[in-house]
Specification:
By secondary structure, this protein is of the alpha+beta class. The chain is built from four helices and two strands; from the N terminus they run βαβααα.
């Protein structure tokens, strides 16, 4: 068994995600446990969004984050179905504080 953790810039672009996938694939015989954290800049962006008082600003920033994630998924040429419920939930949270 091997534990592998990726986050930040290592998963910040479609190309980097493909590299991570190759690294994991090379170690399948070790039964990897894979932990993936936020892509580069997202944790700070979420904190900044939360700290905004204006709902309109939070909503626009969440839309930008969602589009960033959708762009990465599109470049990977995979279905974005699985992220849409999460992005919708984030959009709802942006309207509350």
């Amino acid at each position: 068994m091997i534990v592998m953790k990726f986050g930040g810039t290592s998963v910040g672009t479609a190309a980097n995600i493909q590299s991570v996938a190759a690294i994991i694939a090379d170690r399948l015989e070790q039964n990897p446990i894979v932990v993936v954290s936020a892509i580069a800049g997202i944790t700070d962006a979420l904190i900044e969004i939360y700290n905004q008082d204006a709902v309109s600003v939070r909503t626009e920033r969440v839309k930008a984050l969602a589009e960033h994630h959708r762009a990465i998924v599109a470049k990977l040429e995979i279905s974005g179905e699985s992220i849409e419920p999460l992005l919708s939930a984030l959009a709802l949270l942006a309207k509350k504080k």
